[in-house]
Amino acid sequence: MKTLVPLKQTVDLVEELELNDDGTDVEREYLTFKLNEWDEQALEEALLIKDAVGGEVTVVALDEPDADQSLYGARAKGADRAVKLTGDFAAGVSSHARAAILAGFLESQSFDLVLIGVQTPEDLDGQTGVILAGMLGLPHASVAVAVEPDGDALKVTQEMGAGVTHQLRIVGPAVVGVQAARAAPRYVPISRIRAAMQEGGLEQQPAAEVEAVSGLTVRRMYAPQSSSHAEMLGADADAAAARIIEIIRERGVLKV
Is residue 227 in some structural domain? Predict the structure, then answer.
């Protein structure tokens, strides 16, 4: 089975975020980026399928900041191919534009399944997988927690509300949005990633030129206003307990 996994870089949220001059986005110049956690789940599910029935796993990413690290990391985990679509994406790419670029790449590829993260932390105007499936005219399922080969089809387990699961049988090729893999994403040491970098094998192709209108327009973003603060209590247990009681009385919760 040939499985293709698109990878997206997202802002590392441990960084302090600042807005750009016009307040429509975060200032990206000094930020660090990491692989979208849901795409990491999709990659693991693709590797589990490969472990079970064989085949080939291809990862593809836009030429975004730190994308090489994620692509080589995927190679170190067991992906057979890594493709970077080159272009100017430093300012960010909307879900619609990303889906159109990926669709242009996929039209030249042979594949049985596309596994993609169900969402990203900064996805405001829709899920890329849904849009991609619509552009390609392929079956789609989302919020998947398991994707398993089932004869000439796929058995997709979806997680619904309140922990209820639902199973679908889909005949591929298809696009599936992965919420969680059947196992935790495998760990690879940095030494193996460096070895993958030394081996090379990162393919580069120019991204398709597309015109895709975003579903939403960001007019202005605002930093959250601090309305309170944390008070650190000392190590002395009696003093800390007395201060907690004092705070409760000040708030009017305890009337004694």
Answer: no
